[in-house]
Design a protein that fits this description.
It contains 14 helices and eight strands. The protein has two domains: 183 residues, Cytochrome Bc1 Complex, Chain D, domain 2 (Orthogonal Bundle), CATH 1.10.760.10; 195 residues, no CATH class. It is globular, with a radius of gyration of 25 Å. The protein is mainly α.
């Protein structure tokens, strides 16, 4: 009986252990829309583990970028961004499969390209620098400027920005106001922050608008930058501002993951769009179709800052904006942000023949007619304020790329093309580095079979917008 009791005790313990292991396995294997709230690993251990993994993650993304693109510095002669401080990059940067040309590819059907696996690697969705982890990642030049002005460090201990600086927007970008076009760039060549916004805008804006701007440059907790043990900053953090991504109401190409898709591998990488010209836009968010800038402003801090998870937001310090005052003030300032001057355009947004080159005029004709660009991007602001599904999945099989499942993108917002030369990289997830890449992409997607001359003319036209 004694031996029997021991036997049953051992069997019982084994059963309990198997149940515990099974439960743990089941817990790990079940997909959830929610992030873990209670973190049991000590912060120092998390940081050490992620720092150790950082070089391999960076190398993996670097390898992907170099396989896809020509990342060299090739400025276009005489083509400057609107602030006059940075040259526009030129040339097709997407690499073709061996033995293929753009002309050959354009002559093939979508089905043939898919069957022969010839869709260019650079036309697949671009993963986040670490797609499995995600979160806001800032270019180094912005990190350094915010550190200098505010002493607030936007460095992530686990991750660095991936694209070279010369392929990103001008920094700092100019600010143009719809209400004071006579002033030109009201930023005075500075990055607007909590440290200087008042001196720069007092006397130009009314008090409501100044308060809205203050809120846009005030740091609030965010998923990676906060005080908790699952932050990605070495020290507890005050958070990020709206203008950390939309610097000076424009963009610095900060990347992130969209907050509205699950599971993680299906989430889209994100390119920060400019806030210029939001007053003429009717949809906000690349796929969210939010109907007003007030909706978008509130959504960003309630949801997007925390990957769409209000449970995590509560833990990390959600900033619940008051819709009737704070959101309204922020939206009112954003609605003043104008597109950059385009001296070659007339009052209808078309080229003035007396000011445009022959190539630009030919490009406008291609844009309006053969290229079919104006179907979705009509003048004067070059957006139809709708969403369109390009169905690029016609051209390739679904595949996993650095943790990102490249399959169907679904409908995407038509972004305005006014001032487009100022905001590389392009498309909603940064996959297209230059305007030339964009022309080749749409030449295939729309099947319009442009000649090399038509492609160059089209690029020249878009640089004039």
């Amino acid at each position: 009986m004694r031996h029997s009791g021991i036997r049953f005790t051992v069997i019982g313990a084994v059963c309990v252990l198997l149940i515990v292991i099974g439960a743990a396995f089941a817990q790990e294997s079940v997909k959830s829309s929610y992030s873990p709230v209670v973190i049991n690993e000590p912060f120092k251990q998390i940081m050490a583990r992620m720092k150790a993994a950082k070089p391999e993650i960076a190398q993996r993304q670097s390898n992907l970028l170099n396989e896809r693109y020509d990342l060299s510095n090739k400025p276009a002669k005489g083509a400057m961004m609107s602030g006059g401080k940075k040259e526009v990059q030129e040339g097709v940067r997407v690499k073709l499969p061996s033995g293929m040309t753009w002309e050959k590819l354009a002559s093939m059907s979508a089905g043939a390209i898919r069957e022969k696996n010839l869709w260019p690697a650079g036309f697949y969705p671009l993963p986040h620098p670490n797609h499995a982890e995600g979160g806001m990642v800032f270019p180094k030049f912005h990190i350094e400027e915010i550190q200098k002005q505010e002493g607030r460090d936007l460095t992530r201990f686990d991750l660095d920005y991936d694209l070279p600086d010369h392929l990103l927007p001008e920094f700092p970008p100019p600010i143009y106001l719809t209400t004071r076009p006579d002033l030109g760039d009201v930023s005075q060549g500075k990055v607007v922050t909590i440290m200087n916004y008042y001196e720069l805008f007092n006397g130009i804006l009314n008090p409501k608008q100044i308060e809205g701007l203050r809120l846009l440059v005030t740091p609030f907790p965010q998923q990676q930058f906060n005080q908790t043990e699952d932050r990605r900053s070495e020290l507890p953090h005050r958070g990020v501002t709206c203008f950390d991504c939309h610097v000076n109401g424009h963009t610095n190409a900060t990347t992130h993951l969209v907050g509205d898709i699950r599971p993680q591998e299906n989430r889209h990488g994100l390119d920060t769009p400019p806030l210029r010209g939001v007053n003429i836009q009717r949809l906000f968010g690349s796929q969210r179709a939010l109907k007003s800038i007030e909706d978008f402003t509130e959504f960003e801090q309630r949801a997007a800052y925390f990957d769409g998870d209000p449970v995590i937001a509560t833990k990390k310090g959600a900033n619940i904006l008051d819709r009737g005052s704070q959101v309204h003030f922020m939206a009112e300032f954003q609605a003043l942000l104008d597109f950059p001057p385009a001296p070659k355009l007339d009052v209808l947004g078309k080229l003035d023949p007396a000011k445009a080159t022959q190539s630009e005029l030919r490009g406008q004709d291609v844009f309006t007619n053969k290229g079919k660009c104006a179907v979705c991007h009509p003048a004067p602001y070059y957006t139809d304020n709708l969403m369109h599904n390009l169905k690029t999945e016609r051209f390739h099989q679904p595949k996993m790329i650095n943790g990102r499942m490249a399959s169907a993108d679904g409908p995407i917002k038509t972004f305005p093309l006014r001032g487009i030369k100022d905001s590389p990289p392009y498309l909603h997830d940064r996959r297209l580095l230059t305007l030339e890449d964009t022309v080749e992409f749409f030449n295939l997607v729309l099947g319009v079979n442009l000649t090399n001359q038509e492609k160059q003319d089209l690029v020249n036209f878009m640089r004039a917008l």
